[in-house]
Amino acid sequence: MGYYGWKHNCLNCGNCRTTRLAENCTNKDKAFTNETSGKVLGINFNSADLSWSYPEDKKEKLLCSMKKAVEVEVDLKELQSLVGQMSDLAQMSPFLSIFKKPILEDLALHIRAGESTKR
Q: Is residue 108 part of a domain?
């Protein structure tokens, strides 16, 4: 069943009348019809060549966070953010999970020291 079949069924289903489908997005972000590429859950996918890529904005943010964590002392909240960013990427490349270990150890030290994310 293609998109239009799904849309027809969803609109005519008694239980689905309150469910709204996302409108098509011209940027191919979240909702796009009859396309071979687009962004799904923040990751760029291309079904024609079976590839994925990490968006430039996320890549830049992750690299800046990593650089800051290496160059200066960061607080608990910043470490938690970095772990979340790395986990996001590691879902697509499980081998990258090994790079989280030193950061998780540093995170544990902050927590053991009683540091809080509350300010």
A: yes
Whether residue 107 sits in one domain with residue 64: yes
C-alpha torsion sign, points 62, 42, 108, 74: positive
* Number of C-beta neighbours around residue 85 at 10 A: 18
The alpha carbon of 42 is separated from its chain's Cα centroid by a whole number of angstroms, namely 5
Query: CA separation (Å) from 110 to 10, 70, 71, 114?
Result: 49, 15, 17, 7
Edge-to-edge strand order for the sheet containing 43-46? 37-40, 43-46, 51-53
**pLDDT tens-digit series, residues 14-50:** 555 566 666 666 666 666 677 788 888 788 888 899 9
Six-digit token string for 28: 């191919």
Tell me, what DSSP letter sits at residue 4? H
The model carries a pTM of: 0.62
Q: At 25, list the tokens.
A: 């997005």
Residue 59 and residue 93 in contact, taking contact as beta carbons nearer than 8 Å: no
Would residue 117 count as lying in a domain?
Answer: no
Helix pair 76-90, 101-112: axis angle to 10 deg: 150
